[in-house]
Amino acid sequence: MIINHIGGILKNPAEHWEIVSQENRSVSDLFLGYILILGAIPPIAGLIGTTQFGWSFGAGATVKLTFISALKISIAYYLAILVAIYTLAKLIQWMSRTYGGEQSLERCLALTAYAATPIFLVGILQVYPVMWVNYVLGLPVLAYTIYLLYTGTPIMMRIPREQGFLFSSAILAVGLVALVGLLASTVMLWSAGIQPEFTH
After folding, report:
1. Which residues contact 83 (CB under 8 A, 6 or more apart)?
2. Spatial separation of the C-alpha atoms in residues 149 and 10, rounded to whole Å
3. Is 0.70 topped by the overall pTM?
4. Cβ contacts of residue 186 below 8 Å, gap of 6+?
5. From CA 52, how far away is CA 4, in angstroms rounded?
6. Cα-flanking dihedrals φ and ψ of residue 111, to 5°?
7. End-to-end Cα separation, the chain, in angstroms
C-alpha cells in the first residue's frame, strides 16, 4: 500500500490524487500506515549522518555529534515532523471553509502527507550531510512538493482549479510561517542550554 502511494504520487500525481480522493482512510490509518514510517526517514538518516560521517564547512575539520546528543535531537526532530503535519492538516481544514465548505480532517491530512512525500524521501540525504549536495538536490524536491500541493488541493478539497490555486498559495504561506516558527523555537532551545554536544 505505501509503495503504491509513493510510486503513484511521484510518477503520475494528477491521476493518483483522484485515487487518493476516493479513499476513506482514518487519521490513525494515515499516521500508522504512512506518516510515521516516511516521517522517520529524515531523523534516522540525520542520526546516522551526524554521528558516523559528520559534516564540514569548506576546508574545516569534520564535526560530529555525540550519539546521545544526536539521538535527543533526532527524537525532537521526529516529533516536530509529526506535529507539523497534523497541525498543517488542521489549519487546512479550518481554511477550507473559506474556499467552499469544510472538509474532513482525514482528507486534509491525506493532502498534507502525500504532498510532503518527496521531502520525506529526500531526507535520506542526511545520512551523508554534505551541504551543497543537500541544496542541489533539495531545491528541486521542494519545487516538486509545491507542485504536488498545487495539483492535489483542488482534487482533495473538491473545489475549482482557480480556487485551488489560491487555497494552495495560502497553505504554502502557512507552511513557510510554520517553518520560521520551528527555526525560532530551535534557537530558543539552544539559548536555553539544550544544544548539540560535539565529539572531540
Report:
1. none
2. 12
3. yes
4. none
5. 32
6. -60, -45
7. 45
Cell numbers 539544550 correspond to 194
Task: Kindly tell me if the per-residue pLDDT of 101 is higher than 80.
Answer: no
- Which of 66, 58, 83 lies closest to 195 in space, CA to CA? 66
Domain regions of the chain by residue span:
2-191
- Give the total residue count for the chain: 200
Each residue of 122-133: b (16+ CB within 10 Å) or e?
Answer: bbebbbebeeee
pLDDT digits (tens, 9 = 90+) for 135-191: 888 899 999 999 999 999 999 999 998 899 999 999 999 888 877 877 777 767 666
User: What's the confidence (pLDDT) of residue 182?
Assistant: 73
HSE value, Cβ hemisphere, 13 Å, CA-based, for 140: 3
108 — pLDDT class (breaks 50, 70, 90): very high
Contacts 24+ apart (CB under 8 A), 145-152: 145/115, 145/116, 145/117, 145/118, 145/119, 146/172, 147/13, 148/9, 148/13, 148/114, 148/115, 148/117, 148/118, 149/111, 149/115, 151/13, 151/14, 151/17, 152/13, 152/17, 152/20, 152/111, 152/114, 152/115
Would you state the pLDDT for residue 192? 65
The more confident residue out of 192 and 174 is 174
Please tell me the predicted confidence (pLDDT) of residue 155. 94
Contacts of 122 (CB under 8 A, 6+ apart): 137, 138, 141
